[in-house]
């Protein structure tokens, strides 16, 4: 399970690397009416990786009774993530995203297989596996498809 999850998380690195070829005018265009730009979506995921690396993961290692739960203000966090990305160019966002994801993967590689199936206290009784699947893998799969669909429309124009 651990290696499968890590492999799925690593797929995002390849996806982000592929966005390096996207023209800036498309990178900074909204994905639709009232939607974020590719820039915003990638920044948003990058900041969640950063949060996992600097808050969630250390808490799992240090706390005697660590919890896995949703961020208490995920909408505010998302908004702050978009603000963080303002003024940063595509290259900066791509590099930081890849760096944060690689740190996440390296941290997860340090854990034993059985640590991925331990049920942690919290509202929903997450394991590391279910937490990563719901808040990272499924979430970024949605956004990757959203971006791919958007890029397909731009290629047919």
Automatic annotation (TrEMBL):
<protein>
    <submittedName>
        <fullName>DinB family protein</fullName>
    </submittedName>
</protein>
<dbReference type="Pfam" id="PF12867">
    <property type="entry name" value="DinB_2"/>
</dbReference>
<dbReference type="InterPro" id="IPR024775">
    <property type="entry name" value="DinB-like"/>
</dbReference>
<dbReference type="InterPro" id="IPR034660">
    <property type="entry name" value="DinB/YfiT-like"/>
</dbReference>
<feature type="domain" description="DinB-like">
    <location>
        <begin position="16"/>
        <end position="147"/>
    </location>
</feature>
